[in-house]
Amino acid sequence: MSDLTKIKNEFFIKLNRKLNLSELNDIKSNLFGKNGLITSQFKKIGSITENERKKFASDLNILKDELQNLINVKITEIQNAEINEKLEKEKIDITLPERPFVKGKIHPVSQTIDEISSIFSEIGFNVEEGPDVENEYNNFTALNTPDNHPARDMHDTFYLDKKKQKLLRTHTSPVQIRTMLNNKPPFKIIAPGRTYRSDSDQTHSPMFHQVEGLHIDKNINMGHLKGCLEHFIKEFFEVNKIKMRFRPSHFPFTEPSAEVDIGYQFKNGKLKIGEGDQWLEILGCGMVHPNVLKNVKVDPNKFQGYAFGIGIDRLAMLKYGINDLRAFFDSDYRWLNHFGFDPLDVPTNYRGLSR
Ligand code: PHE
Questions:
Q1: DSSP at 172
Q2: Distance, CA 155 to ligand 1 centroid (Å)?
Q3: Torsion angle of alpha carbons 285, 288, 289, 292, nearest 10°?
């Protein structure tokens, strides 16, 4: 048997064993390394007689290519096998039974915000947002509430610096300013969010929620405001008739201004909204003051409209029969479990808001 045939046969015996990558590398260097079997054969070429040399060199080259190819194929095979083995081991068995886990609930305030947004977006309002940390200008000055205006004291403001330039917004009305400064009229927006005042008892919490409404266009009047709020209250409480009254009031940024009460009564121990002879205040509103429009570069001779600010937490308390506002922010899991909503029941107008 020639040397080449011997090399080839031995190689095949080795290659057919189960090999890992490093064993295969050993085989490779055994053949092609500095003193490898194939390498040594190449070194022999010079000492072979001329007649045989050509054939030998050609056979040797063919053998070299063949073995190299086989080794490369084997390397790919081994690498693939290793990857497959790894994938197999790391496979997640999704057929495992579901472990009992505690389901999250949607907080009643979040639910109420979703309901409110759904109602207003259906009648053409866009939803805007503003930051909780506001500057004094947007929260007060631009809203026609200059320095030393008594209304500033009424707000029990949390200031964040000695100069009283930065504060936690005391209402969502600064979003009116931000919206009008950054866009061109007409405006038709609502802006739900957190608001802050230094106040705490059964119906007041230092952090609470409001939704601002703003509708500015040509010829928008108090009748539009009334119609819009009546529509909202009916939809929100899911009733056909609602008793509501507009009580004259004062806000520096609206003229005229009003507060809106809705009628309610307790019937057989249950709160009934929209009827009865008790009144509950739920929002402040009015026609946007010309000074506010001037501050945001909107011409009050061309544009006018209304704004309102609704207390969200109060609405949620009324609708869902919650009698202490502070419970909203206690994060008591049992409470959340009882009053929370299913995350998959997103409120929509067509499917029902809260059912
Ligand atoms: N920002 C007022 C408040 O918090 C409510 C309001 C908003 C009144 C818009 C009029 C117009 O009391």
A1: S
A2: 11
A3: 120
Ligand 1 atom closest to Cα of 284? 8
State the pLDDT at residue 288.
Answer: 98
What are the pLDDT digits (tens) for 52-109?
A: 888 888 989 999 999 899 999 998 988 898 899 889 888 877 777 766 666 788 999 9
User: What pLDDT was estimated at residue 1?
Assistant: 65
Burial of 350 (0-12, 13-18, 19+ CB in 10 A): exposed
Spell out the domains of the chain, with CATH numbers in brackets: 3-89 (no CATH), 108-351 (3.30.930.10)
Query: Is there an atom of ligand 1 within 6 Å of 308 CB?
Result: yes
DSSP H helices in the chain:
3-15, 21-32, 37-44, 50-90, 108-122, 136-139, 150-154, 174-182, 222-237, 290-295, 312-320, 333-339
pLDDT in tens, 114-163: 999 999 999 999 999 999 999 999 999 999 998 888 777 766 899 999 99
Cα distances (angstroms) measured from residue 297 to each of 183, 251, 302? 10, 21, 12
With a 6 A CB cut-off, is 174 part of the ligand 1 pocket?
no
CB 228 within 8 Å of CB 325: no
Ligand 1 centroid, distance to 334 Cα (angstroms): 34
Among 145, 171, 176, 247, name the best residue to mutate to test ligand 1's pocket (greatest count of ligand atoms within 8 A of Cβ).
Answer: 171
pTM of the model: 0.70
